[in-house]
Amino acid sequence: MEDKLTYKSAMEEIESLVKLLEENKLDVDELSEKVKRMAVLVEFCKGKLHRTEEDVNNVLKSITE
């Protein structure tokens, strides 16, 4: 089991995978696995951003009432 994933570590991993793709450093045997991993990371980041936006909006709403 991996350590707790953070937004920062997910973005760093995505950037690393994108770089490998751009530089054609992934062989066909790795490509599918890496693209699937990237999709998981992107979904994690989207969820984290959405939850953070909701939290910030709730805080702002509570201080303006």
UniProtKB/TrEMBL annotation:
Keyword Cell inner membrane among record annotations: no
Pfam families cross-referenced by the UniProt entry: Exonuc_VII_S
GO MF: exodeoxyribonuclease VII activity
Catalytic class of the enzyme: hydrolase
EC number, as in UniProt: 3.1.11.6
Residue runs in coiled coils: 4-34
A GO CC term attached to the entry: exodeoxyribonuclease VII complex
Domain of life of the organism encoding this protein: Bacteria
Keyword Nuclease: yes
Keywords of the record: Coiled coil, Cytoplasm, Exonuclease, Hydrolase, Nuclease
InterPro entries: Exonuc_VII_S, Exonuc_VII_ssu_sf
Listed GO biological process terms: DNA catabolic process
Database matches in NCBIfam families: xseB (TIGR01280)
Family affiliation: Belongs to the XseB family.
Name of this chain's protein: Exodeoxyribonuclease VII small subunit
Organism: Butyricimonas virosa
Gene designation per UniProt: xseB
